[in-house]
Amino acid sequence: MKIPNPFTPTDDAYDLVVIGMGSAGTIAAEFASEQLGLRVAAVERGRVGGDCLWTGCVPSKALIASAKVAHTVRHADDFAVKAESPEIDLSAVWQRIKSIQGKIATTDDDPDRFRSIGIDLINGEAKVSGSREVTVDDRVLKTRYTLVCTGSRPFIPPIDGIAEIDFLTTENLFEINRPPESLVIIGGGPIACEIAQSLNRLGVEVTILEMEPRLLPRDYPPHGERLLRILREEGVDVRLGTTASKVRKGGDGVNVWIDDGKVTAQGLLVATGRAPNAHGLGLDDLGIEITRKGITVDNHNRTSVAAIYAVGDVAGRALFTHSAAYDAVLAVRDMFLPGRGVPPPLIPWCTFTDPEVAHAGLTETEAIEQHGRRKVQVHSRNLEHSDRARTDGVTDGEIVIITAGGRIVGGHAICAHAGELIHELILAIRFRMKLSDLAEMIHIYPTLASTIGQIAGDDAYRTARRYRSLAKSGRLLG
C-alpha cells in the first residue's frame, strides 16, 4: 500500500530530487515513488543504469562467463570429455556483452519504466543551487530533499605520457568492438584481476603491473597469494612491486617503462581505482565538504546541509553496487519516515575471478588489532576435503572463518561460487554467532557450503574430546 503524499508540490516542486540514475539512484527513486508515494524527480546526464550496467558489473560478468566457457572447453578432458581448442571470436564476445546490456536497458533499467511509476526523469546536468533547490540547465526544481548519487570514474595516475596515449579503462573497454590482441593492465585489484584472467582465457596476451607486493590488497592475504599462483599458471604475466614510470606510443601499440625495462603490447588498460564524481555539483558553494574520497557524510548518509544526502561511490564509503543500493534505501527511509535506521558496519564483497574470492568482516590481522592475539583463532579447510569440490574438479580453494572471543568476526573464501556461500558467514558475523551455532545447522550434502559445516564440526569435535574420560567411564559403568 502506498503511503499518502503529505506534500502538495507545484509543477517544479518535489519531495525528492535524485541526481544520478545508477545503482543507488534507480533504487532510491523507485522506493520513494512506488513504495512511499512521494513526488520524485530523477536527473541523469547520460544513460540510466550507470556504471554497473554500462561499464562495471554487467559487462565484466558477461565477459567472465564467456571466458569460463572457453576455459572449460579447453580443459574438458579433466571431465572425461574430449578437449578441443576453442574457436574464439572476440568481436562476437563483445557483441554478446552489448546484447545483454541492451536487454537490461530495455527492461529493468528502461527509462519509460521509471516514468510509468511516476518518476519525472530529466536528462541534463544538475547543480545543487540551494539547500532545497536543484537546477537542471535552465529549469529550477524545488525539493524537500536532494539525494546525490553521481558515482565515480576511473582514477588515472600521473604517469609520464599517459595523456598522449589512447588507453582503455572500464569506461571505454566495453564500448569498442573488440579488445586488443595483447594488453598491459596497470593495477592489481578486483577489476584488473577479473579482466586479466578473462581476456587471457579468450586468447589475449595479458601482463599485469601492480606496484603493491600482492594482488587484492584488501582481501585475506593468503587468498591473494593463491589467486596469484592460479593466474600465473593460466598464463597471465603478473609483475608485483612494479611501477609504470612512462608510457609512449610504439610499434603497433604502446610501450610501458617499468623499473627494470619495458613492456610492449597492443593496448593499455588502466585499472588503478576510482575517483568520485563530486565536483561541479555546486556543493562547495553550500559549504559541504568534499575530500579526495568524496562527499563527506555522517553515519546516515547526510551532508552538513540537513536536506542533502549522498550515497554510493560519490560518498566514498564502499565502492560496491550492493552497498550503494542499501545506503540509498536507508537514506530515503531516514528522510521521510520517523526514527533513524542504522547503517550496517559489515560490507562484504567478492572478486569474480575463477575461483571467486569473497570477503566478509575482519581478516586475521584486523581481528588481532581489534581484539588481541590471545582471543583470535583462525579456522580453515581446503576444498580438497570437499566431496562436491572433488566431483566438480574445483579442489583448489579454501574457506576460512575468523573468531574472536569465540564469536565469528570474519569469513573468507576462495573457491567456486564463493560469492554465494559467503552469505552464511555474513549472517553469522551480523548476529555474533559462534561456530557451535553453525555446527547445529544441517548443511546439505554434497555442497561446497557444507565445508562451513565441517569447519564448525571440527570445532565441536575438539570440544567433545575434552570429555573423553567422562564418556569412557560412562561406557564402563553401562
Report on the structure:
The chain has 478 residues and is an alpha/beta fold. It has three domains: 13-49 and 109-153 and 275-336, FAD/NAD(P)-binding domain; 162-272, FAD/NAD(P)-binding domain (3-Layer(bba) Sandwich), CATH 3.50.50.60; 355-465, 2-Layer Sandwich (Enolase-like, domain 1), CATH 3.30.390. Helices cover 34% and strands 24% of the residues. It has helices at 23-35, 50-54, 57-74, 90-105, 111-116, 170-173, 190-201, 221-234, 321-336, 364-371, 387-392, 418-430, 435-439, 450-465, 468-477; strands at residues 13-19, 40-44, 120-123, 126-130, 133-136, 139-148, 152-154, 182-186, 205-210, 237-240, 246-250, 253-258, 261-265, 267-270, 274-276, 290-291, 294-295, 308-310, 349-351, 356-361, 376-382, 398-404, 407-415. The strands form six sheets. Strands 1, 2, 3, 4, 5, 6 and 18 form a seven-stranded mixed β-sheet that branches. Strands 19-20-23-22-21 form a five-stranded antiparallel β-sheet, sandwiched between helices. Helix 3 (57-74) runs antiparallel to helix 4 (90-105) and helix 3 (57-74) runs parallel beside helix 7 (190-201). It is globular, with a radius of gyration of 25 Å. The model is unreliable at 1-9 (pLDDT under 50).
